[in-house]
Amino acid sequence: xxxxxxxxxxxxxxxxxxxxxxxxxxxxxxxxxxxxxxxxxxxxxxxxxxxxxxxxxxxxxxxxxxxxxxxxxxxxxxxxxxxxxxxxxxxxxxxxxxxxxxxxxxxxxxxxxxxxxxxxxxxxxxxxxxxxxxxxxxxxxxxxxxxxxxxxxxxxxxxxxxxxxxxxxxxxxxxxxxxxxxxxxxxxxxxxxxxxxxxxxxxxxxxxxxxxxxxxxxxxxxxxxxxxxxxxxxxxxxxxxxxxxxxxxxxxxxxxxxxxxxxxxxxxxxxxxxxxxxxxxxxxxxxxxxxxxxxxxxxxxxxxxxxxxxxxxxxxxxxxxxxxxxxxxxxxxxxxxxxxxx
Length: 342
Known about the structure:
Helix content is 42%, strand content 18%.
């Protein structure tokens, strides 16, 4: 089966062509094209939805046909078209959804809807079969979720952020410190040079017995600290702030995952999302799993951010489970799937 997969939920236009035999846990990535809008949004310190939508419109068709060309396949040879439909920026989603619908209709191909969060988790499937059930942890600029997966297609969100996502907090704090957007990579590098014990920031896990997170308080605490120092003419060490911030996030994630594994007694953890490019979080989760004899999977850095390969991997199992959409398919900015059943 040849899958043409499209992702346009935020500020990357991504198209991939992936081959996977029906009934087998094997994937061959024939092309993986990504058009990033980072430079466009950098001057605003974050993604501007209307600008993102317009950039997707300009990029989607040329990128799709470049993906086909690089994969050395024709549109007629594609067996199924997959596209992210939720959650995300509605204008951005609609660009991908409408292109996918047009392509599927023009060439008579089945159309597969993919949830963006399930797509991130599916980036781990590329390297072969993963035992189910498992717990998945997804962290990105827009999402922080703890998921109980009974199979590759049956997901239940059991924890989430109730306000800011981890990546969002990194960006907002980093922007206040004068870092370039997106701030994650620079904060990662600064954290490696700082003292993680310099500040004791408040934990970001909810203390109500749930697996939920809350990062708005931590973000406000650090921004206020920076504002106060500026008013006093004091200069704070950015490296120490980044190191201490990273530490409390890693500790909070480990705390919630520990509760989750104690409740469900699963033996496999999948981590995914753009924030998993953070070297400190990857190491913390590796240690967490090693100490508890939990099997750990995390995508390569190239598949942590938004990409079409992960959408193809998720689509394969949805399609083989009998899921296909018609031309009424639409994009959804958010849904109950963020919170309950995916």
